[in-house]
Structure formats: structure tokens, C-alpha cells
Write a structure and sequence with these properties.
CATH architecture: Orthogonal Bundle
Distance between the termini: 107 Å
CATH superfamily: ABC transporter involved in vitamin B12 uptake, BtuC
Structural class: mainly alpha
Number of helices: 14
Strand content: under 5%
Largest sheet: none
Order of helices and strands: HHHHHHHHHHHHHH
Helix content: over 70%
């Protein structure tokens, strides 16, 4: 019985022409973990209007990867991810510091930090590629991701880091929720609003570190933002939104991985992004109450109702003799003459 359950995915994928092997298993699990964690944390980033901060953090992670390799000479994923986390967190804190300590707006701070860190990372990556070091091969995959390079140890690391991130979200859910929708009220309750902002930044960094090897620094922001945007169209409750975003993210990751395995030459990371973007498009069009098509239908119904009410009201007034011009001129004159005589 247990063997049948374990072999069920293999049999199902074989039917549609996909060979379920060690590599595909790792890619599926890694993509699912990335989608789930990115969807949950992305909800907070979207609601706090920090989507661009996620993009800046992702680009800021590139020099950390290069510096970790230069310092240690090791291309182990865990070492590179530690470097990515350090520079990603540094970039995020730098954005927050510039925004709060200067007169620059957040968009200007994001633009400066994003371009500076990514430019620095590109220079380092170019120098490493020209150094002739045989161990540098494969570092460029962090630009667009290479999910096929995932091994079981990478998946385990992603699962542990993702589980820790989700546990933190669950434990601090009330504080994060209140500070997201009403920071002033959260401060009045004694919640550390600035500390919660830093905590969310750390969670964003963790989600980005999980996904760098799969989708890369350039496309990572879509994995965070797209599931949250799609889920936002279907509900107004934060808890439900996070659950939907996790499901959408997981489905997008696994669907993108399966499509790339089925179609030769199709990259996994960009395919995951395209699937998530397609779900966003469907949600924007067809979600009840918020979808564009539903809004258009509602507007047409409201217009027809208004015109019907206006026509009915005009007919009622005409039947009651209250429309303009319903009193003959002779009747008005007689009434005035009678009034003068009296």
C-alpha cells in the first residue's frame, strides 16, 4: 500500500510524458516551498506597500553571493546564501535608514540602493568569471535562477528556513496585522512598530534567500508579489489571503516546474513567474466583487436600473399631471383672475 502511494506520482507523471526522477522531485519540492513561503510573506509586503523593497533586497543579494565566494573560495549553496542574506538585509536596512533619516522619498532610496548593490554585484561577478578560478562556474545562475541544480540538501535547507519563517508569521500574526493596517493604533497598544518593520524585512530576506537558486535575483520579486496580488482579489481577510497566496504560490511553483520538465528548453524560474502572472490576470478579471469583468457587469446593471427607474418615475409624474407644461395657459390665467377678484 505504501509503495503504491509512493509510486503514484511517478505513474501519474509518466502518463503525461514526464519522467519523475531525483532532479524533478527536488525541483518540485523546492518550487512548492518557495511559492508557499513567498506567498505568505508577500501578503505583508504588498499590504505594507513594500513590494519594491523586496525587489531591492533581491538585487542587493547578488554582491553578497559574490563576496561570500571571494572570501571563502567555496561555492556551497549554504555559504553563498549566508552572504546573500547579509547584503540583502544590509540593503533593506539602508533603504529604511535613508527614508527615515533624510528628505528622500522611499522610491528614490529604493532606486539608489537597488542600482548600487546590483551594479556592484555585476562588477564582482564579471571579475570572478575572468579570474580563471574553476570553482566560479555556476555563479551566474543566481541572476535568473537554475532550479535544476537543486539537490536534496538545498531542498532541506529551504524547508527549514521556510518553516521557521512561517512559524514566526504565525506567532506574530496579531502584531503584524495591526501594525500593517494601523501603525498608530499598534503604537498606542505598545507594539514595537519599528521592530515589527525590521522583522518583516528579515522575513522578506529569508523568502528571497529561499528562492534565489530557483528563480534568481531579477525575477524573485514576482514570486513574492504575484500570489499576494491574486489572493487579494478574492478576499478581504488577511488570514484567508495568506492561505490563498500560499496555495497560489505552491501551485504556480509546481506547475512551472512540471511545464519546464515537459517542454524541452523551457527555463523553470521564468516559467514559474509566467504561471503566477497568469493567475494574477485571471484573478484581476474574474474575481467576484473586485474583478474587472464583474465590475463592468455590475456597472451595466446599475446603469440599466437607473434608466429604468428614471423612465418609471417620469411616467408616474406624467400620470399625476406634475410634468412641466401639464397646466394649460387658460387654466393658469383663470386661476390668477379668480384670485384677483377675490
Amino acid at each position: 500500500m505504501i509503495d503504491a502511494l509512493l509510486n503514484a506520482p511517478t505513474a501519474a507523471l509518466t502518463v503525461i510524458g514526464i519522467e519523475f526522477d531525483y532532479t524533478l522531485r527536488n525541483v518540485l519540492l523546492g518550487s512548492a516551498i518557495l511559492g508557499i513561503v513567498g506567498g505568505v510573506i508577500g501578503c505583508l509586503a504588498v499590504l505594507r506597500r513594500q513590494s519594491l523593497l523586496s525587489d531591492a533586497v533581491a538585487h542587493a543579494a547578488l554582491p553578497g553571493i559574490c563576496l561570500a565566494f571571494l572570501v571563502t573560495g567555496i561555492r556551497t549553496t549554504s555559504v553563498l546564501m549566508i552572504g546573500a542574506a547579509i547584503t540583502g538585509l544590509l540593503g533593506a536596512l539602508l533603504v529604511l535608514g535613508i527614508t527615515r533619516g533624510t528628505r528622500l522619498k522611499e522610491d528614490a532610496a529604493l532606486g539608489i540602493v537597488l542600482s548600487t548593490f546590483f551594479g556592484f554585484g555585476t562588477v564582482l561577478l564579471t571579475q570572478i568569471s575572468r579570474s580563471g578560478n574553476a570553482d566560479q562556474a555556476g555563479l551566474s545562475r543566481f541572476l535568473f535562477g537554475q532550479a535544476a541544480s537543486l539537490v536534496l540538501a538545498d531542498v532541506v535547507s529551504m524547508a527549514i528556513l521556510g518553516a521557521v519563517s512561517l512559524v514566526v508569521v504565525v506567532l506574530a500574526f496579531k502584531e503584524l496585522k495591526i501594525s500593517t493596517f494601523d501603525p498608530g493604533f499598534a503604537a498606542s497598544l505598545g507594539f514595537p512598530v519599528n521592530g515589527l518593520s525590521v522583522l518583516l524585512t528579515i522575513l522578506i530576506v529569508a523568502a528571497i534567500v529561499i528562492g534565489l537558486q530557483s528563480v534568481g535575483v531579477i525575477l524573485m520579486v514576482t514570486v513574492l508579489v504575484a500570489p499576494a496580488l491574486a489572493a487579494r482579489q478574492w478576499t478581504q481577510q488577511l488570514g484567508t489571503m495568506m492561505t490563498l497566496a500560499a496555495v497560489i504560490g505552491g501551485v504556480s511553483g509546481m506547475t512551472g516546474a512540471l511545464l519546464s520538465a515537459r517542454i524541452a528548453g523551457l527555463p523553470t524560474g521564468p516559467t514559474i513567474v509566467l504561471v503566477a502572472s497568469a493567475i494574477v490576470a485571471v484573478s484581476l478579471l474574474f474575481a467576484p466583487e473586485r474583478g474587472l469583468i464583474w465590475n463592468a457587469i455590475g456597472s451595466r446593471r446599475a446603469g440599466r436600473t437607473m434608466r429604468r427607474d428614471q423612465t418609471s418615475g417620469a411616467a408616474d409624474r406624467q400620470a399625476a399631471g406634475l410634468t412641466v407644461g401639464s397646466f394649460p395657459a387658460q387654466s393658469v390665467t383663470a386661476q390668477r383672475t379668480g384670485g384677483d377678484t377675490q
